[in-house]
Amino acid sequence: MKMDQRTDYFCISPEKEREDIIKLAGIIINDGWVDSNLTIVNCSPDYSSTASMITNHLLSVLNKDELFPMIGLEMPYPNMSQVWDPLEEKYELYDTYLDKWIKRHVYSSSKLLFIDSGVLRGKNFGKLKLCLSGKLDRENYKLASIYLQSGSITKPDYYVQEFDFEKDGGLLFWWENFENPNWNY
Length: 185
Description:
Elements: E1 9-12, H1 14-31, E2 38-43, H2 45-59, E3 70-73, E4 82-85, E5 90-93, H3 94-105, E6 111-119, H4 123-132, E7 141-149, E8 158-163, H5 165-168, E9 170-173
Parallel strand pairs: 1-9, 2-3, 2-6, 6-7, 7-8
Antiparallel strand pairs: 4-5
Helix pairs in contact: 1-2, 3-4
């Protein structure tokens, strides 16, 4: 099935994705929050690696043209409660994985920019914020997403476009498997 035949999804073409990633980087740059201490967190690497990589390259102008360090953070599909932990090479409940990830990567001196391609219901970012509470001051981390579904319980600090699930449909990128059963929830 071709992407342009889908009517039940907010479909993102390659051109739109590229343009909106550039817009996201511009929004972040204009905020003035980024400095040389930043680490970029690639949330849901199987969905957000392109957005994280391009944003990192565009933000490098704020770091003497050097890329910022980047680390991955797995996040579950909307219909799942577990993720694959690449370090332990096994599936774990997201709460367990996230707790271990924070212990490995978050310090009181950390400055983190979490990038996800799309925030749907906002539960993953909401859980992340809750778990970071008391471990990292709120001014030391920001959440970024290209797309935000209206009604999300967590709104990122930076995003490009809000879409309405009822009107626009679910988020679907041009490179996704259109028949992915994890999105049929």
